[in-house]
Design brief:
The structure holds 2 protein chains of 2 kinds. By secondary structure, chain A is α+β, with helices and mostly antiparallel strands. Chain A is built from 8 helices and 11 strands. Chain A starts with a helix and ends with a strand. In chain B, the strands form 4 sheets. Chain B has a 5-stranded parallel beta sheet with strand order 2-1-3-6-7, with helices on both faces. A 4-stranded antiparallel beta sheet of chain B has the order 8-9-10-11, with helices on one face. A 3-stranded antiparallel beta sheet of chain B has the order 12-14-13. Classes of the chains: A alpha+beta, B alpha/beta. The interface between A and B is large, with 45 and 37 residues. Chain A: It is an enzyme of class 2 (transferase).
């Protein structure tokens, strides 16, 4: 949830609550004041009646006006006077109207009379409605103002934060461009920006050191490897080598080749990471794949592997060298982990390439399969970098790659 | 004919000289920029094998100087830097070829031989070896004026053997030479056996001696004296 929405979600109910409560309080208070006011005027009126009776020795005429009603009733027992609010039927309006009334007992010549003085509360209910209306309008206005305020004011106050967020979204480890956070006078944001750029500088530095280490190490390996390989080439030329010597030379050669491949694969990975393959063009995948397959069929004769290829015209916008490396790695992988008399099934359509090969029936953990140096069998002589190179190329070229074991075949799906 | 090896790693330089030197070639070594420049000024070489990173200077500077001096030497760059940009930079500066370390000595030998053929035998398109005559342009083989039809791969294979005559070459280096090094073929070098068998059969049927010998456990050798 966005910051603004979250803010509004908390602040609006609170504001509404406060206004409802204060509106209610206001209403009750005003009501209380008015009622006491009413009661006072009823008491005054009752006093006037009392004075009149004391003076004239008789009750004044019972009067019924719009607002006032006075009535007399003989009763047996004297009761204390009390105020009450009640609804009386109004003949004219044909409706019940609220009245406030004072009932008290007056004793004239030993006879108790109950005198009820009532006054209509109509004016009061109009006032209550007005208060409710004003409260509602105020709430609406406040909500509106608060929304507008949060939209503009908050946005303005938090702008440095969002600028930083935008910058962070673009941040990628190992890119040469340094992120320039904007200066802000808000202390918290300035602090955050300082901390962030410090952290990112450090991360970048560590990353570069690590990358340079890989690059340099793979480079430095090449020279001693050249020496070993050339020395082996020289030793091989010797006459009368024993079988033991020959076998030793052969296995030394093998190991040199493995080391060479390892160094070159690591270099390739860091080159892809360094974006050294940026030039892209539209490539005819069908032609490339069928060329590659024709070429490979010759090499694969020994394992008696059947290639079942269904190729439809398809193209991709990518770097030619990377796609070449990708296909080589892919087919080599499908071949290397295959069984004698196995099958490689290739299916190409625009936007989708699938390659399935028979092999070990155990599924490989899809989370680990693209990890560097991951090998399904530890003893195997390959370096476990082939598939991470494939993954890296896919990431670079905007291709989605998926691995699964399907119908006992290892299936790789590429989508772009 | 003299070949100059400019390489600061003495071990590599020694190996190259040892491998290349034969009755045709004389190999000289320079281990840094200055001695390389001195030798280039003083002597004529048919081919220079040049490392890029040298003490006191860069191999690319030597290339530039060679161009300024309008020397006719063929130059092969050998470098541990395996990137297209480096290759293009090297070839643009006037190098004839670019070989990435670590390389097979037979491969270097084949490339040197190709450069020498291009530089020295201008107009002369034939390599004559014993009774074999190879036409470099038409890529054909004749024996006693009779054509021996060869496939493209067989022809390249023969040329590779001739460039490394009397040397043991591994199957691995043959595959890399003919199909490129990006093919990762791990354990299946044996498929070249059929190419070699066919080449041998064709040569023997045409009446040539059986030059190509199998060297147990290592590879093949083209023996000729």
């Amino acid at each position: 949830m966005k910051l603004f929405n979250r803010y509004n979600r908390i602040s609006l109910p609170i504001i509404m609550g406060i206004f409802l409560i204060s509106g209610l309080c206001c209403y009750l208070w005003v009501n209380h004041i008015l009622i006491s006011d009413f009661d006072e005027s009823l008491t005054e009126h009752a006093q006037k009646i009392t004075d009149y009776i004391n003076k004239n020795g008789e009750f004044p005429k019972a009067v019924v006006t719009d607002d006032w009603m006075v009535s007399y009733k003989k009763i047996d027992h004297a009761t204390p006077s009390y105020f009450e609010t009640k609804e009386l039927y109004d003949q004219e309006d044909k409706d019940f109207v609220q009245y406030r009334s004072l009932s008290y007992v007056f004793t004239l010549k030993g006879q108790h009379y109950l005198i009820i003085v009532s006054k209509s509360l109509e004016a009061l209910s109009g006032l209550s409605r007005s208060i409710a209306l004003i409260t509602t309008i105020t709430i609406l206005v406040v909500i509106l103002v608060s929304l507008v305020l949060s939209h503009f004011l908050l946005r303005r106050l938090w702008r440095p934060f969002y600028t930083t967020l935008d910058l962070l979204r673009e941040f990628k480890l190992g890119t040469p461009r340094q992120l320039a956070f904007e200066n802000t006078s808000t202390e918290e944001f300035a602090f955050m920006n300082r901390q962030l750029s410090e952290m990112m500088r450090n991360a970048d530095k560590e990353y570069l050191v690590l990358k340079e280490f890989t690059e340099n190490a793979s480079h430095e390996i090449q020279t001693p490897l050249s020496i070993i390989r050339s020395k082996l080439d020289i030793i091989m030329q010797g006459e009368n080598l024993t079988e033991l010597q020959i076998n030793s030379i052969a296995s030394a050669f093998q190991s040199v080749r493995r080391l060479t491949n390892l160094g070159q694969s690591l270099l390739l990975l860091s080159k892809i990471e360094n974006n050294q393959f940026i030039k892209t063009e539209y490539l005819d995948l069908k032609e490339r794949i069928s060329d590659k397959l024709t070429q490979l069929e010759e090499f694969w004769g020994e394992k008696q592997i059947t290639i079942d290829a269904v190729l439809e015209p398809a193209s991709i916008n990518a770097n030619a060298d990377l796609i070449d490396i990708l296909l080589n790695n892919l087919f080599n992988n499908a071949h290397r982990h295959n069984v004698d008399g196995g099958l490689i099934r290739v299916n190409l359509q625009q936007g989708v390439l699938t390659i399935a090969n028979t092999g070990d029936k155990k599924p490989i953990d899809p989370d680990k399969i693209f990890t560097r140096f991951y090998k399904a069998e530890q003893s195997s002589s390959n370096n476990g970098l082939g598939l991470s190179i494939i993954k890296q190329i896919c990431d670079q070229s905007g291709i989605d790659i998926k691995y699964e074991l399907s119908w006992q075949m290892h299936l790789f799906t590429f989508e772009w | 004919m003299k070949v100059l090896v400019v390489e600061d790693e003495r071990d590599i330089s020694d190996s190259i000289c040892q491998y290349l030197a034969n009755e045709e070639f004389l190999c000289e070594a320079a281990y840094d920029y200055h001695s390389a420049m001195e030798k280039i000024h003083l002597y004529e070489y048919v081919c220079i094998i040049l490392d890029i990173t040298l003490p006191n200077g860069s191999g690319l500077d030597i290339l530039k100087q060679l161009k300024d001096m309008q020397k006719a030497e063929g130059v092969i760059i050998i470098s541990a830097r395996n990137s297209l940009d480096d290759k293009i930079a090297g070839l643009k500066s006037g190098a004839d070829d670019y070989l990435v370390k670590p390389f097979h000595l037979p491969e270097l030998s084949a490339r040197v031989a190709a450069i020498i053929r291009r530089r020295l035998f201008e107009g002369k398109n034939y390599i004559t070896l014993d009774k074999l005559v190879l036409d470099i342009f038409k890529k054909t083989l004749k024996l006693d004026d009779i054509d021996i039809p060869l496939t493209r791969k067989e022809y390249e294979l023969l040329l590779y053997f001739i460039s490394n005559k009397n040397k043991v070459v591994t199957k691995e280096s043959i595959v890399e030479h003919l199909w490129g090094s990006e093919m990762d073929l791990a354990d299946s070098y044996n498929f070249i056996y059929s190419h070699i068998k066919n080449l041998r059969k064709k040569l023997i049927q045409a009446g040539s001696p059986d030059y190509i010998k199998v060297v147990y456990g290592m590879g093949y050798k083209f023996s000729i004296h």
